[in-house]
Amino acid sequence: MKFRLYLFGKSFTIITDHHSMCWLANLKDPSGRLARWALRLQEYDITISYKSEEKHQDADSLYRNPIEDGTMSEEIGALSTILNLVQEQRKDSEISTTIQSCQESKKSNRSDLQVIDGALYKRNFDPSGKRWLPVIPKHLRLDIFRHFHDAPTAGHLGFIKTYDRLRKRFYWPGLYRSVRNYVMHCKECQRRKPIPQKPPGHLMPMPAVEAPFHRIGVDLLGRFPKSLGGKKWIIVCTDYLTRYAITKSLPSPDAPKVSKCLVEEIIFKHGAPRTIITDRGQVFQSKLIFEINRLCNIDHRMTTAYHPQTNGLTERFNKTSADMLSMYVDVEQRNWDQILTFVTFAYNTARQETTELTPFYLLHGREAETTLDTIFPYSPDGATQDYLKRLLNQTEDRDS
């Protein structure tokens, strides 16, 4: 009730083209939802007046404004403008001066800066990123923000995840502050993301699992507007160890399609899980799902009725993916299935606050390469590292 402080205790009239509202206060024996609505309105001195839609154009025009097209952009400016980093750095007077100073004197005043193949790089002391980070000139930073925050593969995620993507790949003075300002002033994030609420109390997490995909959460998300491909639902699978998510669009949420997805996307690719957590939906209680669990020796656990928090990891991903999809769907909302793979990739390559690593890294032992990573492939220490040895060490650190 946003207007309560203005209307409470005053007599006022509501003019509407919704004719049924005129009879709400005059119902003799209201029940259920109608009774609750009528009871809520009794504290106001209100008169409801009907006005036909043809004569209600003054109010109709306010909520019938044209909707901005939120579809995906086909071109990414960053790719076309920073293909030649050397030339772009020369356009920035401050960087150009620094490059000239480093080239003239063999011993630079700053040991953390180095000119490599004509481009200026800064040493990165964070072991999770590249050893040398390219210094980005001012006129290219906006394009990089658009690629790592606005693009469908970035998903309009928050400040922490966006900053983590950038600090591992690029450097410029004031990176932390500039990323924070850009995300805080993003118009799409302000328009579509609600203010998060604090949990009601301390939560009791589930016991840790030993390996990826030993425990997964599965849920059906929908019903969505019918896409151009005839899809209406999304099946979601989340791994409770790495937080890795797998999604697939479905035309209908029937048992054969859900079972096929579980077998092809989970069991054949990641092995049979030891535990599956789902809600009490009719699909998950079908005989086909029961037989798959029996044949694979899977412990199927169902959440408490009307308490989806039991499968909290999956439910939270549903909220995050729905927010990301809303950033890129068109006005008719029929292209959401084409965007689904992009936003899932954005989630899996974003740093999680609980693990402080990305789900992709925890599952594969390496970070995912983006299109900009292929433009800046330079990493002097990457070719000499033993990948298998590094992967074993990372696995031991993760399990310890």
UniProtKB/TrEMBL annotation:
Gene3D superfamilies: 1.10.340.70, Ribonuclease H-like superfamily/Ribonuclease H (3.30.420.10). Its EC number is 2.7.7.49. Residues 208-367 form the Integrase catalytic domain. Keywords: Endonuclease, Hydrolase, Nuclease, Nucleotidyltransferase, RNA-directed DNA polymerase, Transferase. GO terms for molecular function: endonuclease activity; hydrolase activity; nucleic acid binding; RNA-directed DNA polymerase activity. InterPro entries: DNA/RNA_pol_sf, Integrase_cat-core, Integrase_H2C2, Retrovirus_Pol_polyprotein, RNaseH-like_sf, RNaseH_sf, RT_RNaseH. Signal peptide: none annotated. It comes from the Eukaryota. This is RNA-directed DNA polymerase. It comes from Araneus ventricosus (Orbweaver spider).
